[in-house]
Amino acid sequence: MLTFHNPMHHLHAPVHEFFRGEKVACFETPARAEFVLAALQAAGHELREPDQDAASALAQIHSERYLDFLRTAWPQWIALDPQNEQRQPFPSVWPVRSLRSDVEPENFVARLGLYSMDNGSPLASGTWAAARAGADAAASAAHSVMAGARAAFCLSRPPGHHAGHDFMGGYCFINNAAIAAQTMRNLEADRVAVLDVDYHHGNGTQSIFYERDDVFFASIHGDPLTEYPFYLGHADETGVGDGAGYNLNLPLPAGSDAAAWFAALERACKAIGYVHADALVVSLGLDTFEGDPISQFSLTAGDFDRLGTRLAALGLPTVFVLEGGYAAAELGDNAQHVLRGFENCAAK
Ligand code: Q9C
Ligand code: ZN
Asked: pLDDT digits over 139-188, tens only?
């Protein structure tokens, strides 16, 4: 499969995050993308660097002041204290109910809180460069499919589906799936379906498109009553205004088996047919894998093949965008199974 990989991804390499109150090594590492690249190379996929600029879609998906903050965050952090080069900034205060988010504070950590949904998205010196190049990779994959490719894969990190219009979260900074969907809308597609199969609900993508009927969002994920991101992803969230009926959440209890997962996939695929989408973006999180260290579904490599096959049967021009998946050593093999299942079926 035609694959656009992000040549800057390694510049985003934070060291630690918080897990159960303790500082632990980051789960979302450069090695993840390296394992996927190696597996695709070995399997003979066509690998390219981004050849499109995502600037116009970026301005449609994210707020100007959020993008300005992201671009300048690291230099501002260093300006506070040169020793900060060795430190990761984390937010500590957030503008929850009754607090104001319309006034941008001058204090750096306060602005970091304003533009974050959690303390789980550590910044590093090259976060902006990596995330910005990832947007170009997503736009490039979208362009290639609109120009006639059957499918394309955006192999990038950091991931994107938790990032909203003006906030980062869950290891995500720029919403690559939203960039891909918007890019397809800006070209020929009248309606795009985004199917999010990451273990975690794609709250950023849902919120970006919640009031729009030109992008349908469907997600299969761990029930937010117990699973991150906790505050979005319930079945009663179906869209508002023009977007009413264009959002479908299929939460499953943590620990659900493959049979339950594929039953949900069937419902999502049926819905994608009903809305007459003419292009598909797959937020391809592979943290549904049985060996994932932070998630609790139990899909196997064979199940990933089956997923790819079912997606190909939708018959839509398709962009795959890498999201989560933290069993790094198995990530390449698992991605390869989805793409192989897709291509085997698409060829028939
Ligand atoms: N902060 C994606 O899969 N919770 N993000 C981990 C420690 C956040 C996952 C617990 C999980 C976010 C793209
Ligand atoms: Zn995830």
From this structure: 999 999 999 999 999 999 999 999 999 999 999 999 999 999 999 999 98
Could you list the active site residues?
162
Please name the residue whose Cα sits nearest to atom 5 of ligand 1: 170
Q: Are 242 and 215 in contact (CB under 8 A)?
A: no
Distance CA 233, CA 310 (A): 23
Say how far apart CA 194 and CA 89 lie, in whole Å: 32
Whether 341 and 307 have beta carbons less than 8 Å apart is answered as yes
Question: Phi/psi zone of residue 230: left (φ > 0), alpha (ψ -120 to 50 degrees), beta?
Answer: left
Pocket of ligand 1 (CB under 6 A): 17-19, 120, 159, 162, 170-172, 198, 200, 228, 285, 287, 294, 323-324
- List, in sequence order, the alpha helices (H) in 171-293: 176-186, 203-209, 258-274
- Token pair recorded at residue 260: 């339950």
Identify the pLDDT of residue 348: 67
| Digit-coded pLDDT (tens) for 92-104 | 999 999 999 999 9
**Ion ligand 2 neighbours, Cβ < 5 Å:** 198-200, 285, 287, 324
> What are the helix (H) ranges across the chain?
30-42, 55-61, 64-80, 108-114, 127-146, 176-186, 203-209, 258-274, 301-312, 328-346
Q: How far apart are CA 184 and CA 268, in angstroms?
A: 20
45, 1 contact by CB (below 8 A): yes
- CA dist., res. 269 & res. 246, Å (int): 13
Give dist(CA 247, CA 234) in Å, integer: 11
Question: Rounded to the nearest whole angstrom, what is the distance from the C-alpha of residue 197 to the centroid of ligand 2?
Answer: 9
Provide the CB-side half-sphere exposure for 78 (13 A, CA): 9
Ligand 1, atom 9: closest residue by C-alpha: 170
Gap from CA of 86 to ligand 2 centroid (Å): 27
Between the CA of 176 and the centroid of ligand 2 the distance, in Å, is 14
**Alpha carbons 92 and 207: distance in angstroms, whole number:** 24
